[in-house]
TrEMBL record:
Family from the record: Belongs to the FPP/GGPP synthase family.
Name of the protein in its database record: Polyprenyl synthetase family protein
Pfam family, one: polyprenyl_synt
The keyword Calcium is assigned to this record: no
Source organism per UniProt: Angustibacter luteus
Length: 339
């Protein structure tokens, strides 16, 4: 059986237990097949638009966490239908949010391919995102009323994070604190729900489910912080996106926020550039070069590693075993990846 795109291999996750590896591979293959079925449509145009980002690839990080978390329950070694459905729900929700994000960001690329809004226009991209949210709702309805409630709550928090990011910090609020709150809501909450659903539908008890939910939120923040660093440090061939996209869009990610705290006269030019629009290619390139060489980058890496360490620390309350080890290694993989 061929492995699904992304998954454990995207994060260099080694398996010491062949049985766990086989279970994860089987589950991820089933998730991938269900995702492809979910984005299908009788209208070929709609089917192409809905499947666009799915076909572009992706790490399938959220489904992977759902599957791994399910193995912490009493049905370890089995691939349960409800776990597969839950994994499909979180990935469809994630994919839908990407269509909307690209419209708001006016992105040209996503996962190394032309973004949906660039290819078909904003209206089609927004409606396609809505369609995928609807498909996620159909699937989660099969999992019961409580799962629907959790999914709705997750989506509400995700939207709150997007609004907070758009509006910016309140007067007097620490920009770094505000940004980390945005990440916990915009990214962390769906990853937390991925772990929660996996443990829940894998039959884990309430205490284990809560441990994995908290782990998911923390690794979710680490995941996004790592993405922010990749956006600044990588070349387009590595990340599949144009380097410095956040800079060009005026989104102040953690390295920028740390750099803006500087009082060193040597940083005057960088601070001047960061204070203005960076739509000009030459100014954007100059800013990117100065920021890559600034200590703020390493400081942001330290913060990212700390969030991953905090995620690992939560796992200490779980019994030792292959699942705990895999989840701990995944935290390292999230921080160390280059794309």
């Amino acid at each position: 059986m061929s492995a699904a795109p992304g998954g454990a291999s995207s994060f260099g996750l080694p398996f010491d237990d062949p049985a766990l590896e086989a279970t994860v591979e089987e589950a991820m293959a089933r998730v991938e097949a269900s995702l492809r079925e979910s984005v299908g449509h009788v209208d070929n145009y709609i089917a192409t638009a809905a499947g666009h980002l799915l076909e572009a690839g992706g790490k399938r990080f959220r489904p992977l966490l759902t599957v791994l978390s399910s193995q912490a329950g009493p049905h370890a070694g089995k691939v349960l239908d409800d776990v597969v459905k839950a994994a499909v729900v979180v990935e469809l929700t994630h994919l839908a949010s990407l269509y909307h994000d690209d419209v708001m960001d006016e992105a040209l690329l996503r996962r190394g391919s032309q973004s949906a809004n660039s290819r078909w226009g904003n209206t089609v991209a927004i409606l396609t995102g809505d369609l995928l949210f609807a498909r996620a709702s159909q699937v989660v309805a099969d999992l019961g009323a409580e799962a629907v409630r959790v999914q709705a709550m997750t989506f509400e928090v995700l939207c709150s994070g997007q609004i907070r990011e758009t509006v910016g910090p309140a007067e007097g609020q620490d920009p770094v604190e505000h940004y980390l709150t945005v990440l916990a809501e915009k990214t962390g909450v769906l990853i937390a729900t991925s772990c929660r659903f996996g443990a829940w539908f894998g039959g884990a008890d309430d205490a284990t489910t809560e441990i994995l939910r908290v782990y998911g939120e923390r690794i979710g923040v680490a995941f996004q912080l790592a993405d922010d660093l990749i956006d600044l440090a990588s070349e387009s061939g590595q990340s599949g996106k144009t380097p410095g996209t956040d800079l060009r869009e005026g989104v102040a990610t953690l390295p920028v926020l740390y750099a803006q705290e500087s009082t060193d006269p040597a940083d005057a030019r960088l601070l001047e550039l960061l204070a203005g629009p960076l739509t000009d290619d030459a100014l954007h390139a100059e800013t990117l070069g100065l920021l890559r060489a600034h200590p703020a980058m390493e400081r942001a890496r330290v913060t990212t590693r700390q969030w991953a360490q905090d995620a690992r620390a939560v796992l200490e309350a779980l019994p030792q075993g292959q699942v705990r080890t895999a989840l701990s290694l995944l935290a390292d993989g999230v921080v160390d990846r280059s794309a």
